[in-house]
Design goal:
This protein has 359 residues and is of the alpha+beta class. It is 14% helix and 31% strand. The structure holds calcium ion (CA).
Length: 359
């Protein structure tokens, strides 16, 4: 069974040595050069075409797979697939929110009072969203009163990201597929010591803005089967209904080559349709190239951050080579990949998004 067969066909931007960037489509272990159809060095002009053209062009690529020049995946360099316009990160896993509260704020209520009324999010830094493979430099910051230095508690957040194609404001949940082109995997690198000192009352700032990695491949929404919608109590306000479908995605987190977690997106409380509706309900418009991420994907047993996995570093995990880790050390590599239920009944692959920490 192949995870990148004709029912998947994610888009990316590649170059061969000495050549310009081109748009390509991944098929198994080759890149199909579709620059004849999509003659741009970035996906943004394609994203701007809208749902009917996205569907038509995918159909044209699929119907004539042998028409496209093939280049071995190992022979190309992969680049940022699109220019990120604005970047928003949500916080939509109830399991993650409760775990973080228990670990960082023991004795306080598990969920903020508004958490089940609206999808909480913050505006991230679009300019430091980087493609998989980009080294991640350990950030400096204030780690406590009078304490400045490199972050000691560097962490990951495994997330699912949504790429906006068609601009819009006040987008109803029923229209999210007209606006969202596809899905990337996201690693929202997080410095927990910087975060713990800075985040109240306005949320994360420098703890996360130094780097956010995304996969080089953007999987079109058409490739996914609908997942089951979440059960929500209390019932959200009308602008957040109907909730829209979930996505049946299972992430896989590897730390220096050892699988340490397999969190499932099925447990998320808020859907992408609700996040987009909330993001734009006040009249704020999304633009072509906007990226919004799900928030850390954690479930009842499998978690998408090392803060949760190691109980804030107090329960180190043992990696395959015998090393024990609480948080990230210099030289560590994290790779997030995923599988999802495909629209045509099979399983499709996503990602990977990988990054290595440097001092
Ligand atoms: Ca996050």
């Amino acid at each position: 069974m192949t995870l990148f067969g004709p029912d998947n066909l994610p888009y990316g931007v590649f170059s061969e040595p000495g050549h310009e960037r081109r748009i390509g489509v991944r098929l198994d272990d080759v890149v199909l050069d579709v620059s004849e159809l999509l003659p741009w060095p970035s996906l943004n002009p394609f994203l701007a075409l809208g749902r009917p053209e996205w569907t038509r062009i995918r159909g044209e690529i699929r119907s004539e797979l042998r028409r496209w020049r093939q280049i071995a995946l190992g022979a190309v360099e992969l680049h940022m697939p699109f220019e990120v316009a604005d970047y928003t990160d949500f916080y939509s896993s109830e399991h993650h929110a409760v775990n973080v509260s228990r670990i960082l704020r023991p004795g306080e209520p598990g969920l903020p009072p508004q958490w089940k009324h609206l999808p909480i999010g913050y505006h991230g830094r679009a300019g430091t969203v980087v493609v998989s493979g980009t080294p991640v430099r350990r950030p400096y910051g204030q780690l406590g009163p009078g304490l400045f230095g490199p972050a000691q508690r560097l962490d990951i957040e495994a997330e699912v990201g949504f790429v906006v194609g068609t601009p819009g404001a006040r987008i109803p949940t029923t229209a999210w597929r007209d606006h969202v082109f596809g899905v990337v995997l996201v690693n929202d690198w997080s410095a927990r010591d910087i975060q713990a000192f800075e985040y109240r009352p306005l949320g994360p700032f420098l703890a996360k803005s130094f780097a956010t990695s995304i996969s080089p491949w953007v999987t079109p929404l058409e490739a996914f089967a609908d997942g089951k919608p979440p059960e929500q109590d209390p019932q959200p306000l009308p602008y957040l209904l109907p909730p829209g479908s979930g996505l049946d995605v299972t992430l896989r987190v590897e730390w220096n080559g050892t699988e340490v977690s397999r969190p499932s997106y099925n447990h998320m409380y808020w859907t992408a349709a609700q996040q987009l509706a909330h993001l734009t309900v006040n009249g704020a418009a999304v633009r072509t190239g906007d990226l919004f991420a799900s928030g850390t994907v954690s479930g009842p047993t499998q978690t998408g951050s090392f803060l949760e996995l190691t109980e804030n570093g107090t329960r180190p995990v043992r990696l395959g080579n015998g090393d024990e880790r609480g948080f990230l050390e210099d030289g560590d590599q994290v790779t997030i990949s995923a599988t999802a239920a495909g629209a045509e009944g099979g399983t499709i692959g996503l990602g990977p998004v990988s990054g290595t920490v440097c001092p």
